[in-house]
Amino acid sequence: MRFLVTNDDGIESVFLHELVHALRATGQELYVVAPKREQSWIGAAKSRNRPVHATPADRGFGCPTWIVDGTPSDGINIAIGHLLPGAARPGPGGGPPAFPIDAVISGINVGLNASLGFIIASGTIAGAWEGALHGLPAIAFSQDLTSELYNELKAAGDVPEPELHAILRISARHAARLAPELAAATPARSFIVHNVNFPLPCRPESEVRRTVPARVVVPGLFSPADNDGSHRLIFRLGDDLSPPEPLTDRAALSAGYISHTVLDYKKLGQ
After folding, report:
1. Residue 248 carries which DSSP code?
2. Residue 240: inside a domain, yes or no?
3. What CA–CA distances, in Å, run from 193 to 69, 88, 136, 202?
4. What is the pLDDT of residue 92?
5. How buried is 259 (Cβ within 10 angstroms: 0-12 exposed, 13-18 middle, 19+ buried)?
6. 0.90 exceeded by pTM
7. What CATH number did the domain enclosing 66 receive?
8. Is the dihedral of CA 158, 164, 169, 171 positive or negative?
9. For strand 29-35 and strand 2-6, is the pairing parallel, antiparallel, or unpaired?
């Protein structure tokens, strides 16, 4: 299949690189467009009031690659509209347009994207959502991490320790297996995003479970004002208010399962 791949952690993220290498290893045809810098928690923001540059790059992926000095949503829009070979063509009999790609994939995100609050804020999921807005199947992948592992990763310049890197490669192989299956099973113009979260640790035998977003309240995300009047983000997982059933994304990850949530945006109007 032909996939357009993005992320919100930036073009240099090892988590993106491992996903691309795993997809390539299974014979998928890829195009990569990723932000120049980290764009976490940016949601579906678009750069309305400034020009956005898209620059061809070589990051050893063996496929066309561009760096965008904007958001994941910027990148997907610009790539589909202007960078990919061949413009979208009207479908036969007035059906969905024919795109040069089969689906949009976003990730692997550094950290989970599970529960309502995190899903809505996620730049990773928003990158996939832009694909869905074009009528394409869309998949977002994220890797759960502890706060300690996340802080260690950032302190090391986003270079994972060997144990975490090995887990990431396993998750990437799961992603490469799941992506064609999910894309093929998703009709055009379905307004669906498949949100997949990998547990920590993720193992070759880790099973996939269908889930729903956890109902988590996340108050107090910013610190009190400092001496200069500024407030700073304080990361919190929030308080889970979910009922015991059905299985939530957070509960599945805690049990060691790969969480697969189908985000059906058509239901927002029902």
Report:
1. B
2. no
3. 24, 21, 9, 22
4. 59
5. buried
6. yes
7. 3.40.1210.10
8. negative
9. parallel
- Phi/psi for 54 (5° steps) reads -120, 120
Per-residue pLDDT of the chain (270 residues; tens, 9 = 90+): 999 999 999 999 999 999 999 999 999 999 999 999 999 999 999 999 999 999 999 999 999 999 999 999 999 999 999 999 975 565 556 666 678 999 999 999 999 999 998 999 999 999 999 999 999 999 999 999 999 999 999 999 999 999 999 999 999 999 999 999 999 999 999 999 999 999 999 999 999 999 999 999 988 889 999 999 999 998 888 899 999 999 999 999 999 999 999 999 988 765
Can you give the length of the chain in residues? 270
Phi then psi for residue 67, to 5 deg, are -110, 130
3-state secondary structure of 54: strand
Give me the pLDDT at residue 88, please: 57
Domain contains 167? yes
Tokens for 201?
Answer: 């640790």
Q: What is the DSSP letter of 266?
A: G
Domain count, the chain: 1
In which residue are the tokens 């986003």 written? 158
**How would DSSP label each residue in 89-142?**
BPPGGG-SPBPS-SEEEEEEEEB---SHHHHHH-HHHHHHHHHHHTT--EEEEE
Residue 234 covered by a domain: no
Structure token digits, residue 96? 């969905």
Residue 57 covered by a domain? yes
Structural domain boundaries enclosing 125? 2-209+247-269
Q: Which letter, b or e, does each residue of 65-76 get, where b requires 16 or more Cβ atoms within 10 Å of its Cβ?
A: bbbbbbbbbbbb
Bridge partners for 2 per DSSP: 29
